[in-house]
Design a protein that fits this description.
Radius of gyration: 21 Å
Strand content: 15-25%
Shape: elongated
Number of strands: 14
């Protein structure tokens, strides 16, 4: 069965013809999906009722099912668990900022990277998401913003569950679709991609010539500690990672964001802050300090506000651009994978009973 979500105009027109419809119907269908957020053919009122009924039988949009949702008390962070046709469920998180709304997009269901603090990797990797399934998260979020009368989505970060560069082809197609003026028309500078540091794929991305913001999950200032926190470092240690990051910054003119999740008694000392400042000195970069969202199964907690501030102060005085991520969604467990795992555990309990 043909699924229209994720198609370009040319592909949709070809799909319409293959169904025995006029070519222009493909463009109309995509305008309803991409511009108006239509979740069913029944909403497409400039298509005849007969053709809508035919499409309902012979094709699908590919719209996800809303399985669960949470909103924080301030209404600034909304987390959605979306289900796809094969039963796979993924999270996406809508966040309000002073400049507008951004969305955290998942690129995989689960994750195989094994980072010690992360909920996404607790049950391993189930599968890669398709470009259409990533686009579905964006369209779902925009439909929610329309419902809330909150305007247009400003940007997105591919920073949800999964390692985007382990799903390279589909992620690349996703960002290209979002940039396509006949799909979303979103500028590449409004897109960010976060990686654990898969160096060969970073080097490949550098050759694409796309000015995406690249965020690198760093989380440690030396190889010994980073290898304990992030197994990927045993394959791609800091020297090769930073060389690939520097090359990307030079090729795109975009500064690298280094994500540094602060974990109590793991990587939050002043000595480690000094070491981080030395590591990043002279690089086109910015450090985003993230107090860890505690995951019960991991036994890792966040440092005190005073310790977080002291860490940031060391970087600032050493000339490193740094921000501390504003607390978002702590009361709804907004860390990647937490809602999905909670829903999974509840489903398992229901089956047992």
């Amino acid at each position: 069965m043909i699924s229209f979500l994720g198609l370009s105009r040319q592909q949709a027109e070809a799909a319409a013809v293959s169904l025995g419809l006029k070519k222009y119907r493909g463009k109309q269908i995509l305008e309803w999906i991409y511009n108006k957020g239509a979740a069913s053919f029944a909403e497409m009122t400039n298509i005849s009722q007969k053709e809508r009924a035919f499409l309902q039988e012979q094709a699908q949009i590919g719209w996800p099912e809303l399985v669960a949702q949470q909103a924080d008390t301030a209404g600034e962070t909304r987390k959605y668990l979306l289900g796809f046709a094969d039963g796979i469920r993924v999270e996406t998180v809508l966040m309000r900022h002073p400049y507008g709304y951004s969305l955290c997009v998942s690129s995989q269901a689960g994750c195989a990277m094994g980072c010690v603090f992360c909920a996404s990797t607790l049950h391993g990797l189930e599968r890669n998401l398709t470009a259409a399934e990533m686009l579905a998260q964006v369209l779902f979020a925009q439909r929610e913003l329309n419902r809330l009368q909150a305007g247009r989505l400003h940007s997105f970060v591919i920073m949800g569950s999964g390692e985007p560069l382990h799903n390279y082809e589909e992620v690349l197609r996703f960002v290209q679709l979002c940039h396509d003026p006949e799909v979303l028309g979103l500028g590449y500078r409004h897109m960010a991609l976060s990686t654990c540091g898969v160096v060969p794929a970073m080097e490949r991305l550098c050759q694409e010539g796309l000015p995406l913001t690249l965020s690198i999950s760093l989380h440690a200032p030396n190889d010994e500690l980073r290898s304990r926190i992030m197994p990927v470092n045993r394959t791609y240690p800091l020297q090769s990672l930073l060389a690939a990051a520097d090359a990307y910054a030079a090729a795109t003119g975009r500064r690298i964001t280094y994500e540094y999740t602060l974990m109590k008694d793991w990587n939050d000392s002043q000595q480690q802050a000094e070491e981080l400042a030395v590591l990043l000195r002279g690089r086109l970069c910015h450090v985003n300090l993230i107090p860890v969202n505690a995951v019960a199964e991991r036994g890792i907690t966040r440092p005190s506000p005073q310790r977080i501030e002291a860490f940031a102060q060391v970087l600032q005085t050493r000339g490193i651009a740094v921000t501390v991520r504003r607390e978002r969604g702590v009361d709804i467990q907004a860390a990647c994978g937490q809602l999905r795992n909670q829903n999974r555990n509840e489903s398992a309990k229901e089956e047992e009973s």
